[in-house]
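Researcher: Quick sanity check before group meeting.
Model: Go ahead. Protein one:
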Amino acid sequence: MQFVLLGAAIINLVFVGEWATTIVLIRLTVFNAVLGMRGEAKAEASLAAVFAAIHALQVLKILPYMIGPFTVHAFSFWSFLMWWALMVWI
């Protein structure tokens, strides 16, 4: 989204030459980037809170360790392909 807005600002400045619209588009780009980073920070905080709650329930023996400690692994296309093939095969 930011690249599209910056591209529109550059095209507007080069072809139209209107500074007011260019400044509005650049400010909109910065505002959009700030909102995106804020939303990502909130999502990370909420995920950390969920992990903490799950861990606390496991320590208190309310929620059993079914498959070990709860972790998130990085996405790997190869792992996804193997998982998908296993689900199709079963």
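Researcher: Fine. The other one?
Model: Protein two, sequence then structure:
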Amino acid sequence: MLIAFFLRYLSYFLEPMKKGNIILKYTNFTLNYNVQDHAAVNWHYRLSNYTKKGVPRPKEFYLDPKLDLEFQQKSTKSYHCGTTNSSKLFYYNYNTFSERQSTQNTQSPNFGSNYFGNCNGDLYDRGHLVPSTHMNKNVGSRHESHYMTNILPQISTLNRGIWLETEQITGHFAKNNSVEVFGGVIFNDTGNDHFLESHGVKTPEYFYKIIKIGGNDSFTLSWFIPNKPNLKDLSYYELSVKDINREVEYNKGEKDINREVEYNKGEKDINCEVK
């Protein structure tokens, strides 16, 4: 049944999109992108022979030069609700705060409000969907991972905590295995859409990720995580593919991201259809 699941999920990226969804194919990853919402709603990539050593991380974020500006976020700046003292494009100082920081320390460093969005007391990062560190085999691919098409507002402690942990787990298995990664987001609450004016993008309520490890004897790990502060350990958010699919349907993300994910009761997989 796992084979059926991955074939069906992957086919979602190969079929023509409707109602504003297009497929953005980059060097080493693919986004299912909604041009109306200026947001990717699903992503997919493969990773193998992974090592942390690679090309340097870009110091900035960029707009996709091949996509019309009207279909992209309005800014590459950090997600910030208040005013800022400079119009400079800010980026994280990874010499001070490493992307490999221990997941035990999930408190945001005190870099000042220029680096983070502060909304109702919550801090937001420019959160990667496809991790920059997993695209470190060549300059072009890592640069593409810093396009704003691959970025959404993500609670800082999530981005630097258990979401980072999912990336580290993926990298660990990809050292000696072939790993395939599928991810997505759900939008179902306008209460946290703090960046519509500044960036033209909504804030996801949930991030989910499914990783397939190995070939014929493959197994999967999957998580469904709310975009909130003060979360529990990663293991608390482990969820089967079947249950992730049910959560997606229950939360009615389809009406916001112009897609519908249906669960085929006869098989333990995701049957994705674009209505």
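Researcher: One line on it for the slide.
Model: The first helix runs from residue 2 to 14.
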